[in-house]
Amino acid sequence: MVKMNLIIAGTNPLVTDMVAAYIMGFQPREISTFVWAWKAGMGPSSLNDIEIRGEKLRNVRKNFLSPTVVPWAAISQYGPPC
Prior knowledge:
This protein is mostly helical and 82 residues long.
């Protein structure tokens, strides 16, 4: 857990997730679900197209660790998930 003292709110869930990911130190293009959303026609596709109110993103940005994703094929030998 990282205490950030922030509230991220908006009317577009993709936008709020993009802002949160950026604050966590990730570029939106690094997040595959965002790329798929853009391919499906959802938008916006750039932080520059988002109205940000309050604190500047650069002032609150921290670098979080990237998650480790283990492919199902690598763990499926252990049986189905509980």
